Amino acid sequence: MHASLPKPADTDPPVIEDVAAAASNPDAAPVVSVTLSDAASGVGTAFVFFRAAGVTAHSKAELKGGTKGLFIARLPDGLQKTGFDYYIEASDVAGNGPSRIGSPEAPIRVERATEATAQRLARQEQAQARVAPGPAIHPAWM
Known about the structure:
The protein is mainly β. 13% of the residues lie in helices and 37% in strands. It has 2 helices and 9 strands. Strand 3 and strand 4 form a beta hairpin. The radius of gyration is 20 Å and the shape is elongated.
């Protein structure tokens, strides 16, 4: 019978693999999605800290989910109209972290949304039709 070796202690924070903010439609509240992983103990907590353009204090929203490492937070409606700053923090189950993308001093900036997605796609499609008449690739695929 072989004795099992003790599992090494988890000393590394989670890895933030990808971050995206969907805030290009003035009629839809912004959504932040983050892909996180932590092979040792698993992701424990994840938050997005955000503030409207021109505001100094950050608010906090929990990033929820975790299915295949994808965590999502819907931010308050209206931020897409003003633009906003945000940063991400994540810690693992063992308490390591936080890992960060952005920071309170150097957040990620999202400019205000000025045109609804459907309007932008229609405008791009019309512009494409003027340039190259006939069958064209839909702007959403470009």
